[in-house]
């Protein structure tokens, strides 16, 4: 499915963003909150098989069209998901702060898959559901099941350093940090383009 906000001018530049990570980590809510400018009224979990939405954002005084590719994290959809990678400019590698497995899979499953199918894409590690860090029921669940607290910013940053990629985090449910995630993601592509332009301008033909 593809959706695009009505009444928007045609964007000059286009960027494809593919979002991956374990199932139930909050990927769809992140995308819907960014696209619709509000958290989904019905946030009951329904596994996404494949979904594409189109939206525009302003970056550095330029209008950029974003194609947002939502993917399924379940193993059953591995073959379908890899069809989303071709042409990706950016991959958001997501994990949830209430799931240790989702962070472990960032390097055990997702990063190898990204390197294989989208080697040229910029990758941003994104922590989701950070509002749960102050949710007592979530905290108690983690202590009961894992004998520890929720994943911290420091643990996310440590994983990002290990993977050698940038890091961001947000809480879509309370609409905190969502815009920052996409600004950071687009900035990764734009900064690399600027570096290429600078390199070319420094070339001297003898």
TrEMBL record:
Gene3D superfamilies, alphabetized: P-loop containing nucleotide triphosphate hydrolases
GO cellular component, one term: plasma membrane
Localization: Cell membrane
PROSITE patterns listed in its UniProt record: RAB, RAS, RHO
SMART domains to which the protein is assigned, alphabetical: RAB, RAS, RHO
Molecular-function annotations in GO: GTP binding; GTPase activity
Biological processes per GO annotation: small GTPase-mediated signal transduction
Keyword field contains Membrane: yes
The entry's keywords: Cell membrane, GTP-binding, Lipoprotein, Membrane, Methylation, Nucleotide-binding, Prenylation
Recorded topology in the membrane: Lipid-anchor
Signal peptide per UniProt: none
Database matches in SUPFAM superfamilies: P-loop containing nucleoside triphosphate hydrolases (SSF52540)
InterPro entries membership: P-loop_NTPase, Small_GTP-bd, Small_GTPase, Small_GTPase_Rho
Listed name of the protein: GTP-binding protein Rho1
């Amino acid at each position: 499915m593809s959706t695009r906000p009505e009444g928007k001018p045609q964007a000059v530049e286009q960027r494809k963003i593919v979002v991956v990570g374990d199932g139930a980590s909050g990927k769809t809510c992140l995308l819907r909150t960014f696209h619709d400018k509000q958290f989904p009224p019905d946030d009951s979990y329904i596994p996404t098989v494949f979904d594409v939405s189109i939206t525009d954002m302003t970056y550095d005084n330029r209008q950029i069209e974003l194609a947002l590719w939502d993917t399924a994290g379940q193993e059953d959809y591995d073959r379908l998901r890899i069809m989303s990678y071709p042409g990706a400019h950016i991959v958001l590698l997501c994990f949830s702060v209430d799931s240790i497995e989702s962070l472990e899979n960032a390097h055990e499953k997702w990063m190898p898959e990204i390197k294989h199918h989208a080697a040229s894409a910029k990758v941003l590690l994104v922590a989701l559901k950070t509002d749960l860090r102050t949710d007592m029921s979530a905290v108690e669940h983690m202590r009961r099941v894992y004998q520890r607290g929720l994943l911290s910013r420091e643990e996310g940053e440590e994983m990002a350093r290990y993977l050698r990629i940038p890091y961001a985090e947000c809480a879509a449910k309370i609409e905190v940090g969502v815009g920052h995630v996409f600004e950071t993601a687009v900035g990764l592509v734009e900064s690399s383009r600027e570096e290429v332009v600078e390199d070319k301008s420094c070339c001297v033909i003898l």
